[in-house]
Design goal:
Helix content is 7%, strand content 39%. The chain has 589 residues and is mainly beta. It folds into five domains: 30 residues, no CATH class; 214 residues, Immunoglobulin-like; 95 residues, Immunoglobulin-like (Sandwich); 103 residues, Immunoglobulin-like (Sandwich); 109 residues, Immunoglobulins (Immunoglobulin-like).
């Protein structure tokens, strides 16, 4: 018996519905159950305004459409728009489209740069394959200037460092905050933002004419402001000037470093043997000030007494937070007050004025303790010692220099004396420089007549023996690297420090010092692969200074040779040129 027509009609309708459901399901771009995981990166399908658009209305909303639904929070955080808005814009999502609604009209006659970083990702956390940048203008043309370089965090290059560029205020670009005539990342957000790639490289594109001040930081909380004490900060070596349309400034190097903004305090002072006063600070203080007698004022509490005489100031390499002052004309049992002035940390933080003094007393007991030998370089039993080495002996307290000079000798194993010049870098540091290069592959004996060396109080050395030996290097082991440090403009000059960083040998670095840019040759490099860099040591302190924000000081310029350099034994690697181009910089320090 056949089913009634109504039932047949119902079955037919259900079959059609099932067919449609199956068809729609099969049409979806989904992998079959148990299939391979989706690892395809998302793609930007549409931009509005289109890249390269000009005369864009100032009330325009920016729209970015992707080919699939995105993880909204991460994608919104990966969006950078330059120049930055004074008031953060509203971000809305409509399906696959991110809509940016500015709270204020766009600036007139200005090129806007929109970057979607690789932090943008789809719902399966697949990131964009590469950052996407596009530009449009509210004026008649697109700006085409650019600034590029590399940035690192305390010497290590990495992706995701934030680079900030501030356009110096002009009539058309007034300061964001009253009183901020100079760019200040603590109070004002940058005009332009970009990030480093995995190799540390960065580039600001679509820049107009003007002067730009650059900073590097991590911006952990993404508020486009620098948080002192929390986030590192890097300062460029000068303000970069874009002077004509399409100008490309390349080769900038910016190093971000942690900066302590808390003022250091003077912890105390104590009088040691030999009329030496040790002054200890909470943090490391710049040596330029620490070794300056003008930084300290010492007076007796009894105003009837005269101030003592500061003979010299010195420091030990391992006691980086202390300075030692050799004093004369101290009065036994008297009390004295020391005040420290005009001292700063390497981050330009001044000493706390409320904790910058200490008191000390002079004992009645005379100094009867003999000095000791603190360190010797080269150290005992050293091997592969350079043929141009300088002997350094550091004592535990100030010495009678004449007694040490006459007691010192350097001989080879045949007891042939090495002639040279003696000098003192401080009351505790004796130096001996041979008149000629030492012999290769030779053992040398370093001696002091202990009973003939005494400190400034007349106490002989407490050491019972002094027998140091070292072995010089075989020069056939070494290779040579040569080239030239070039500087433009040539009218600018500065001492130069060149660094040769060995990629094997535990990452050891070697340095060469030039009084000014010019040719160089390092003939004592171990074979292997090297990274070569140089910086302009403008204050000649043998350290690259990374600048300060308040008071503002630029960092010292640094350049890198673009390729790895190979050094071979008994061979000269030529043509390693290091080029400083300061033509784009405007420096006021």
């Amino acid at each position: 018996m056949s089913p009634p027509p109504k039932i047949l009609k119902a079955i037919g309708g259900i079959s059609l519905l099932l067919f449609l459901v199956i068809s729609v399901t099969c049409a979806k771009r989904l992998p079959p159950p148990g299939g391979p995981q989706d690892k395809i990166p998302p793609v930007v399908l549409k931009l509005d305004p289109k890249s390269g658009s000009t005369n864009v209305p100032r009330d325009t909303r920016i729209k970015i459409t992707f080919d699939e639904h995105m993880e909204q929070k991460k994608t919104s955080e990966a969006l950078f728009i330059s120049p930055s808005f004074r008031e953060p814009p509203k971000l809305k999502w409509k399906g696959r489209t991110l809509i940016v609604e500015p709270e204020e009209p766009l600036l007139g006659n200005r090129t806007y740069v929109v970057t979607i970083g690789t932090g943008a990702c789809d719902l399966r956390r697949n990131p964009l394959a590469a950052s996407i940048t596009f530009a449009f203008s509210t004026g008649d043309s697109i700006d085409t200037g650019s600034i590029s370089g590399v940035a690192d965090l305390e010497g290590k290059r990495r992706s995701g460092l934030s680079l900030w560029a501030y356009l110096f205020p002009t009539e058309s670009n007034p300061p964001q905050a009253e009183g901020d005539s100079l760019p200040n990342p603590i109070r004002v957000s940058p005009d332009y933002v970009t990030q480093t790639a995995e190799d540390g490289s960065f580039k600001f594109s679509y820049l107009g004419l003007g002067s730009y001040r650059l900073f590097a930081t991590t911006d952990k909380n993404r508020d486009l402001l620098w948080d002192p004490g929390v986030e590192p900060l890097g300062i460029a070596a000068g303000d970069v000037v874009i002077s004509f349309p399409g100008e490309e400034v390349v080769g900038l190097v910016i190093t971000a470093t942690k900066r302590d903004t808390l003022k250091p305090v003077l912890l105390g002072c104590q009088l040691l043997q030999g009329r030496v006063l040790e002054v200890e600070f909470e943090k490391e203080i710049l040596k330029e000030g620490l070794l300056d007698p003008e930084s300290f004022l010492i007076n007796p509490l009894d105003t009837a007494l005269s101030p003592p005489t500061m003979v010299s100031l010195y420091s030990y390499r391992e006691k980086t937070k202390s300075v030692f002052i050799l004093l004369e004309d101290l009065v036994a049992k008297a009390q004295y007050r020391l005040e420290a002035r005009n001292l700063f940390t390497s981050g330009c933080v001044p000493l706390d004025d409320s904790a910058n003094f200490c008191l000390f007393s002079v004992p009645e007991i005379a100094d009867t303790v003999g000095p000791a030998i603190h360190t010797v370089s080269p150290s005992d039993k050293s091997v592969a010692v350079s043929l141009d080495t300088i002997i350094v002996i550091e004592f535990s307290e100030p010495m009678d220099t004449a007694s040490v000079n006459s007691s010192f000798s350097l001989t080879d194993t045949l007891l042939t004396a090495v002639e040279g010049q003696t000098s003192w870098s401080s009351p505790i540091s004796f130096l001996f420089k041979p008149d000629s290069l030492l012999l290769p592959n030779t053992v040398y004996l370093l001696r002091l007549q202990l009973d003939s060396c005494w400190d400034v109080s007349g106490n002989p050395l407490a050491d019972t023996s002094f027998d140091y030996r070292f072995h010089t290097v075989n020069p056939d082991t070494f290779g040579t690297m040569s080239g030239e440090v070039l500087l433009s403009p040539k009218s600018f000059s500065s001492p130069v420090v060149i660094s040769f960083h060995h990629l094997e040998r535990g990452g050891k670095s070697y340095t060469s010092h030039l009084p000014a840019p010019g040719e160089y040759k390092n003939e004592r490099l171990f074979p292997g692969s090297y990274l070569v860099s140089a910086y302009l040591d403008s204050n000649d302190n043998r350290r690259r200074d990374l600048g300060c924000l308040e008071p503002f000081v630029f960092s010292e310029p640094e350049v890198f040779f673009p390729d790895t350099v190979e050094v071979r034994s008994r061979w000269e690697t030529e043509g390693v040129y290091l080029k400083f181009d300061l033509r784009f910089y405007r420096r006021s320090d």
